[in-house]
Amino acid sequence: MGADTMSSRAIAGSVSRSRRDFLREAAGLSLGAALMSASPFVSAESVRRRRKVIVITFGGGARDQETFAPEGQENIPHLLNELIPQSSFFTQVVNRGILGHYVATASLATGVYETLNNFSAVPPQHPTVFEYFRRDLRRPADDAWVVAPSNGFNRIGESDSRRYGSGATVVLPKRLLQAATAGTQVDYEHLLHDNYETPLYTPQVEGNEFELQQMESVLKLSVGDFLAHARTLASPDELSVYIAKRLMALFAPSLLWITMHDIDIAHSGAYSLYIDGIQRTDRLCAELWRAVQSEPEYAGNTTLLILPDFGRDADQDSGGNGFQHHRTGDIASRTTWMMVMGAGARSGVVYDRPVQSIDLVPSLGAMLGFSPVDSLGKPINELL
Length: 384
Fold this sequence. Notes:
This protein has a single domain (2-28, 46-372), classed as Alkaline Phosphatase, subunit A. 37% of the residues lie in helices and 12% in strands. It has helices spanning 2-26, 45-50, 77-83, 101-110, 129-137, 173-180, 189-192, 208-219, 223-230, 236-251, 271-294, 331-334, 360-368, and strands spanning 30-31, 52-57, 87-94, 144-147, 169-171, 255-259, 302-307, 335-342, 349-351, 355-356. Strands 1, 2, 3, 4, 5, 6, 7, 8, 9 and 10 form a ten-stranded mixed beta sheet that branches. The longest helix has 25 residues, at 2-26. The protein is globular, with a radius of gyration of 20 Å.
């Protein structure tokens, strides 16, 4: 047992060092210490009140050989050349929980490794970052939003904790599109495919009527305009980014969470589509960051965090299917990365010590000034 643990740690450390060395060489990042003085994150209440935070989950999981390894760098030109040089980059973010997309995203959002059924329409068991944020800081409903690609994410905005309950408004662009196209002859199938891992299962979604009825009054978007724009898009994630940018322009929420999911088409077994998903996610992350710079409410006071929910199986693991799945729980599946840029972030610094994915929520709490009392993670010192 001890030998296996040490072996896993050694492998994870090797992955971390490979990412570190590659980024230092290719992107010019410097090696950061675990703790640094004169932190750029300021705790003054006036600064916290203005701070905006956007979280993008690089959903679906992508391996180093298709991203940060030398042979994969051509797939992430925007991250590598545009975003990473502006960021603090963490090379070793470990997910010790269940490797399913909904449950892993719920764990990211609660700071606890959730154990719920990945394919059930249930809320997280523990309070979410959105509930902490709204209750502790007394923020209104329109200050916290989630834009999610899959119908299975409809409950991610708030837990079933009786102590909380008022969290984020969840927008499901694909569900809006499905409701808006009911009875039409226009083919939007490429935007409506819901779950690449289990395509025959779609959880029951609540609140659909409200979402469709409120699209014009809340998003200031007619059904006709929404459909016309959807026709120009190639993927569900593009639709999500379109909605996210509209929310930014209309409400300027202080906490915005966007889950990407195109990469998960890898479950189909088509390597070329998996690569397309990585390249598109790379482009959309940069597009969101440019939108931040162009919106007066966001420019100069926004922290953007990008991180995968988890990775994918290694080719050499006999228990998996390589890029296609994430079922083995090996190091390639569990060891990912995170970049943090914008307000308060140190540019061009790489950290290779291990942190956990559940450390995200307490780190956001330290940035924004709320207390995630049920989280089991720890604030990342380099971000304090």
